Predict the structure.
Amino acid sequence: MAPILLTGGRIIDPGNNVDLVGDILIEDGQITRVATNIDATGAEIIDVTGRVVAPGLIDIHCHLRDPGFPEREDFKSGTRAAARGGFTTLIAMPNTSPVCDHPVVAEYVLARSKREGVVNVLPYGAITKGQQGQELAPYADLVAAGCVAFSDDGQPLMNAGLMRQALLMAKDINKFFAVHCEDRTITGEGVINEGEVSRCLGVKGIPYTSEAAMVARDILLAEETASRVHICHVGCARSVELIREGKKRGVAVTGEVIPHYLNTTEADMLTLEGRFKIKPPFGSQEDQDALKEGLVDGTLEVIATDHAPYTLAEKKRDFREAPFGLIGLETALGVVLTAMVHSGLLSLPAAIAKMTCNPARLLGLNKGTLGVGGDADIVVIDPDREWQVDVNENESKSRNCPQHGRWLKGRAVLTMVGGRIVMQDGKVC
Ligand SMILES: [Zn+2]
């Protein structure tokens, strides 16, 4: 590979407190120099004047559906969607078929994604065998096979005693545990947020306590066992308050926001389209405001996509029957820049940190920065590009996206993984 010089861009590397206009030299897949002016004879020169050069985005919450559901997504389509969205590393949730609760499945995810994928993929291991909530998975074996974190996402761990044991184990192996907080006995048959809109439509609602009660439980368990816990897809104001209060008490609790919640509320559910059906359900305007406040004051340190592909046929079912989950890899950056940065709530470096160095630090990954000697995983962003989302242009196999038709400001224009350009001007190479 010939050396590449990205020249004239605004280099934002929050993990190293770097924000300068300058050049980055990439040689043999690594970043070898970052400076205001680099003379690199022989290098391929890419002029990125007026653009932002940032560490490649890291998604600590996505569903790539392989093994088991290739009609929804596979490593090729999922990682191409990631490249289009500016992501260079994905941590794949284990709710596949079979579930990633055995080293063989983790090895399969690593090998197959390497062969078919265009960005890095690392596997989550399951917290319980088969995500059945009955018996803990073999964590040490899964770590040895390459799992970097653990989650039963998609399924709540209803058994508090087992959750407590799992947190103690997580502490022993010092691994990141991401929990899907939902009390199914409260969710019941609910399909959207319980409130004005559910009452107006006459559909069964999901009370906010379905999420918040479990958030409270898991914070208490983390406090008592002195372990750490990460709350997936925080959706309601009460959960944000609980995490904020937990942090004040010194609990090692962290939380993530999914971009869709920053520009979508229960009011969008009036059409009862499957492409808005998600868990936790989109809440009220107050819930959305609380999530934004949580991002601003640092209560919520990560932005993740929860990219959850489903086929059109699955999503076109009767609204009550359609599965919960939406795709987001290709729109996440645009939504975050539009809802948080252009609105003046978050600085660009602060927003980038929540999608790069913050998730890397939580996972203990040696990624998420533009440090010299590190892998050249880089995204070039045009922060002012206005574009209308059209799911028909997706690299993902699925179309279940609430952003379809909306105008966003800001998008990735070049994605580089290990020094190789995998996306340029929206085209995945
Ligand atoms: Zn979940």
Remarks:
- Residues 153-154, 180, 232-233 surround zinc ion (CB under 6 Å).
- The chain has two domains: 4-52+375-428, 56-363.
- The radius of gyration is 21 Å.
